[in-house]
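Key result, reporting period 2: structure in, sequence out.
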């Protein structure tokens, strides 16, 4: 296949593979991360900048990693909140002709040339999304995650729209125009939470983490029983409860 590609196209394929490889290697050890999206143009004096910083700080104190696009504005606020709370602050930076300047509050920083490779990292290593007010990029991430969850292409994850004044009009349009047209189901709105409450955001993700830990724990026990049958020892369950379950360690066949 590669022989059929010409010049730059073949090298582009290698660059794409290298971005996926580096991303998987760098982020492979990340557990229970929340991605926070929002405008790169939001000033530091803005209400939503301060909210994003507080959300990230509170999540980091609950031992969640924070993932952003690595740039200024809301992304900087989220990275800063996590960084100041001694949490894991991850920035997935992208090469752009304007706006994208890496913020200084990243404990893990990666650079991407391709949006699609970067998107995979957000989806693969996040257990939830917070969408602060933002532009096309934020809308893109929101609707892509919503589509993937709605079509069961990824495991269910909470999608939080923070800022009812900002998101209310869009949600109302979805509820009226799209429902009236019959192109979505009313049940699809169960996938979205709109809130102005920082503590509610934290509670949504801590609750989801507990659920996810339980799912992983039950899967591990089932896998051990399948592999070991009558040799399965009751004390193994205690070890799983104490060591693996809190960290979300998942066994593979």
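The corresponding designed sequence is given below.
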């Amino acid at each position: 296949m590669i022989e059929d590609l010409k010049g730059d196209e073949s090298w582009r394929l290698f660059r794409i593979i290298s971005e996926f490889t580096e991303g998987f290697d760098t982020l492979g050890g990340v557990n229970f991360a929340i991605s926070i999206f929002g405008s790169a143009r939001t000033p530091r004096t803005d209400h939503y900048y301060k909210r994003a910083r507080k959300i990230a700080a509170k999540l980091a104190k609950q031992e969640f990693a924070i993932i952003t696009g690595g740039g200024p504005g809301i992304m900087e606020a989220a990275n800063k909140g996590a960084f100041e709370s001694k949490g894991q602050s991850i920035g997935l930076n992208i090469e752009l002709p304007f706006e994208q300047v890496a913020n200084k509050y990243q404990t893990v920083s990666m650079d991407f040339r391709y949006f699609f490779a970067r998107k995979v990292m957000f989806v693969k290593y996040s257990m939830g999304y917070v969408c602060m007010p933002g532009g096309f990029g934020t809308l893109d991430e929101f609707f892509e995650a919503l589509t993937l969850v709605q079509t069961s292409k990824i495991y269910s994850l909470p999608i939080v729209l923070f800022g009812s004044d900002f998101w209310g009009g869009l949600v109302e349009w979805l509820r009226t125009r799209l429902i009236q047209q019959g192109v979505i189901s009313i049940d699809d709105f169960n996938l979205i939470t709109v809130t102005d409450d920082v503590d509610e955001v934290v509670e949504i993700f801590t609750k989801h983490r507990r659920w996810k830990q339980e799912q992983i724990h039950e899967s591990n026990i089932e896998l051990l029983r399948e592999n070991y049958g009558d040799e399965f020892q009751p004390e193994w369950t205690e070890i799983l409860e104490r060591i693996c379950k809190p960290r979300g360690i998942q066994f593979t066949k």
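The two ends are 32 Å apart (CA to CA). The longest strand covers residues 89-94. This case is discussed further under Risks and Mitigation.
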